[in-house]
């Protein structure tokens, strides 16, 4: 199966193509500091470039995997409109993937996350900067150790939510009190970098250095997570906003929809 | 050549199909009524609804045109101006539909779209209007006079310096307690009123009294519009009437509407005089206003009034503009971005000059 994966939940345009033989090509655009995200300008050119490198055309794509957030609203809509437009036109299957789960999968796939016969890998707190002094966060643990080398999705311990950075220690404490909870934690994503001080003060929580690739959402993980998932009707593939529009909040100040 | 076009610059999710002969095969408009309770279009909410609706609206347009995507030979979408978040949904969708099939693509300027609505044949207007002509575009977002001398461009003769004409209607309607969107409600209320009951600045009644400063006189010599003073005048009139304003609502609405129409008419006449043309066309939501249509007919020029469904935002007009514009072949349009306001950025008008859009604009990570 030829699978095209893309994610625009973060300022990056992240893409990957999985070929028939299981090999994966990836490409990305990361805006420089202070630069605006260039999803509309970069997403499709990078996709065309990736496909061309594999001597493929858009028409050859059989499945589209798309990160549905949470993340920046406009970025998510560009990614989802692109994925849905491609799926409708080719036509191809479409599979939504949680962007926070893809971020966590990247951290768990890294060599430092745990050796094959070492202790079980750490739990991952995926934290994206949600602006307005809030973060999007979710917690995952590695898949059961019996799983063979094939990618098994990380197990969700805490569903994606929007919260204030000072609430992160509370979330971790809650996670740790659960039975069989991971003993060590790694926190990744631009939110973990920005609010490092709220996390590093806690015992057995590591935030990798600022420029570590672990903080970047890699579309190869989106592709891997979508490989064994069920496709959905394209109308039901929508962003995971987690926050209502400001105007709605102003009209009826209630907490955002439950994640 | 069958053209599929999308338009999502504001709060209507639109898709249309033009048949190879240029006739409208489908013109689907899904209006979002969710904004009424906010008293205006909320960009974030509009963008969310566009994404929910856009593929369904495309599917419906194809079904109504009795064609499949395989039959489409050209894609088009509004690139700007408008709400960027909203535009990006339609633009991203259309670019993707096009590139999946390696079809050419035309990014359309929304205002050029309103002009191009006049190039469409309809049961009400079987003969398409052809350049040269002057086109008045008046909506909630835009008010301008365009000199149209060919099918794919226009020159701006004048534009509003403050509120758009449609905004003036909506704000006046709100002052009269008519809710949002208020233009059509204000027009209905005005039917029972006397347009000469109140004198608002710029109206004929006001002009006959004379009296205006040098700045006003300078402004009068341009082809620009201004509606902000009018809005203030209505506010004062309502305040002065106090508890009686309610009884005079129809007169206020009729006089206010007459003042807006006066200004539009006056500028149209001046633009026709300045260009030496005797041909006038219209577009935009305000072009649905019955009083404006009636009074324009009194100008005694060759007048083209598209049916209301082609004056308000729609994708048939975008397809019509695309029909007369140079198409960008695959893959040279993949990088196109939306723009919020003003003129189209120079990069976007001639993407063909890019030697290869496949040269990725950013470093790529090796597999
Ligand atoms: Zn418009």
Explain what this protein looks like in three dimensions:
- The complex is a heterodimer of chains A (259) and B (367).
- Chain A is built from eight helices and ten strands.
- Chain A has helices at residues 39-53, 73-89, 99-109, 168-176, 190-194, 196-200, 219-227, 246-251, and strands at 3-7, 13-18, 24-29, 63-67, 93-97, 123-129, 135-141, 155-163, 185-188, 205-206.
- The longest helix of chain A has 17 residues, at 73-89.
- In chain B, the strands form two sheets. A five-stranded mixed β-sheet of chain B has the order 3-2-1-4-5, sandwiched between helices. A five-stranded mixed β-sheet of chain B has the order 8-7-6-9-10, with helices on both faces.
- In chain B, α3 (110-116) crosses α12, α4 (165-175) runs parallel beside α8 and α9 packs across α10 (290-297).
- Chains A and B meet through β3, α1, α2 and α8 of A and α1 and α2 of B.
- Residues 110, 114, 139, 284, 313 of chain B line the site of zinc ion (ZN).
- The site of zinc ion has 5 residues of chain B, from α3.
Please write out the topology.
The complex is a heterodimer of chains A (259) and B (367).
Chain A: E1 3-7, E2 13-18, E3 24-29, H1 39-53, E4 63-67, H2 73-89, E5 93-97, H3 99-109, E6 123-129, E7 135-141, E8 155-163, H4 168-176, E9 185-188, H5 190-194, H6 196-200, E10 205-206, H7 219-227, H8 246-251
Parallel strand pairs in A: 1-4, 4-5, 6-9, 9-10
Antiparallel strand pairs in A: 1-2, 2-3, 6-7, 7-8
Chain B: E1 3-7, E2 12-18, E3 24-31, H1 43-64, E4 74-80, H2 84-100, E5 105-109, H3 110-116, E6 133-138, E7 143-148, E8 155-159, H4 165-175, H5 183-190, H6 204-207, H7 214-220, H8 228-241, H9 249-275, E9 279-283, H10 290-297, E10 302-304, H11 308-311, H12 316-323, H13 346-349
Parallel strand pairs in B: 1-4, 4-5, 6-9, 9-10
Antiparallel strand pairs in B: 1-2, 2-3, 6-7, 7-8
Bound molecules: zinc ion.
Zinc ion is lined by residues 110, 114, 139, 284, 313 of chain B.
